[in-house]
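Students often ask why we bother encoding 3D structure as a string. The short answer is that it lets us treat folding as translation between two languages. Here is a chain of 105 residues written in the first language.
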Amino acid sequence: MVKKTLADGSDCRKCAEATEQLQARGLWHRIDEVVWAHEGDPSSAGMVLGARLGVERAPFFIVRDDDGRETVYTSVLQLIRERLGARVSAHDHAMAIDADDIGGI
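And here it is in the second language, the structure alphabet:
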């Protein structure tokens, strides 16, 4: 999991929400590593990964298969549903909609 820390040292809101989602579902233990993208530091490990993978927003998740193939998930709910084998309800999807992502609300 790549999480972003803001300039003031706090976690970004969406990163904290993703962590809460995983913990509430008992799935946090399935996250092998947290890599940090530090706001304003393009050389931080998370920023470097984001640049390499073309991902501009945190949080995001990288799943590496046994054959070395990487799949990137920018949605915690998609990760939960597709890779962690848990159900995601329509209510969960609706609650995950962020006005910042759809612009202008």
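Translate back mentally: The chain has five helices and four strands. Keep this in mind for the problem set.
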